[in-house]
Please model this.
Amino acid sequence: MNIFMVSSEAYPFSKTGGLGDIAGSFPLVLSSMKFGSSKINASLLIPLYKQNYKLISKKNIIAEFQIEYGKETIKTEIAKIKHPENDNVDIYFIKQDSMFKRNGIYSENGNDYPDNAGRFILFSKAVIKLIIHLYKEEKFKLDIVHIHDWQTALTALYIKEVYNEEKALENIKVIFTIHNLAYQGNFPTNIYPLLNISWKFFVHSRLEFYGYVSFIKAGIILSDIVTTVSPSYSLEIQREEFGCGMNNLLMDISYKLYGILNGVYDNSWNPKTDKHIKNNYDLNSIKNKMLIRNSLYKEFNFSNKNYPLVTMISRFDIQKGLDLIYQSFFELSSYNANFIFLFSKNNYLKDFEKDFIDRADRAKNIKVLFAFDESLAHRLTAGSDMYLMPSRFEPCGLNQIYSMKYGSLPIVHAVGGLKDTVINYNGNKSINKASGFSFNDYSIKSFVNTMDLAFDLYYNKKNVWDKLILNAMNKDYSLQKTVLEYVKLYKKLLVK
Ligand code: ADP
Model:
């Protein structure tokens, strides 16, 4: 069974968030699985960004296409390498220097690239060209294309309705995963000519969305199966509150909509083997966490070395509950705890960022850092005692899962994937299962009350605290489980 995983980012080649983690590790896990009695041949298709040029040379270029792009044609190459971690997985890089050889993935210095629509139109067209090329030149017949988020959603339109006469594309099943419905790829109609398709597709039942061209609609409407990254989120987005204007459409396609919980790739996120931390540990050597915490305290100049460490690693985005954090700085500063926030920058929130830093600077026990730092993210997860994730909405969320796996108890708003992963401590009856703390209504009062409870347990009921850590670390969050669920969906599609 041949499957292409198509994504705009994939770790370790490129990453800005959870999509990168999942798209990068998914094909590695998938390729170790069977489809009935046959092998699964999984490949990854991603743009070749600037930082990946060192991985390829002329000998890796396997094809060159002239791609229609409005009135122009653009030369685009395909570079193929074996995945550095696993020979069985091929990586196909879409190489177009002027589009992708840039300093950022979607943005630079916090500003989105103005030609993002065009970049991902070209990317989707190159994916189609490659599928056709491999069929003609290598008799390679693809069974499934698994696309992710708006950047790759047009692939569904090209396969199902634009190039549907092509033999190579016949019977290909398309599965579309929504990692975050808030990002839809809606663009003004002046980009439409770049699609090189008839205007007949600019209707409500296809790409039109309130006068805009919506890439995500192509994925939702034309894919055979649509998934979201947690069961709760798949239900929430069918309601107005979380539907980002698409709730009715999602309700209409609910017969093909599934929620599958994301998992953790053990080779990347495991306290026992994590390459970013010096003092690796598991449940039996959990004392090592203290060493990691101590070295963070030294690095960040905290004076109270005995306080617990509370962390948050996130995009600086309102989605992540930043208003709750900001408005509870006074309470945070009064806890006997140290806080480290690691945020990736967001130019749309420049003023808020300044305010946020100003407030944090007034508290001795709060440090805020703006950077995208993979290594520090791992060290903070390993060194911390508690993890904050009070998101307004959360399609799945990976950091709360990483933190539980690393023995740091999450404090979360019970929504989406947070609700599906963190089992709330609510007294003795929950002691055998609870793996963190959650609150239902999105308010400062609930957030602070939940933190009060967590600190009370940490300082006054050590045995309960330790039991929660045991529960959290013993849980199985493996990506294997996730991928197995997807394999069931692939089967459903292929046996039809
Ligand atoms: P989202 O995809 O909404 O950003 P997730 O929780 O699904 O959120 O995944 C976030 C991923 O990005 C995690 O691997 C997290 O560690 C990483 N990440 C987020 N912000 C940063 C940052 N500032 N530095 C390093 N890694 C980050």
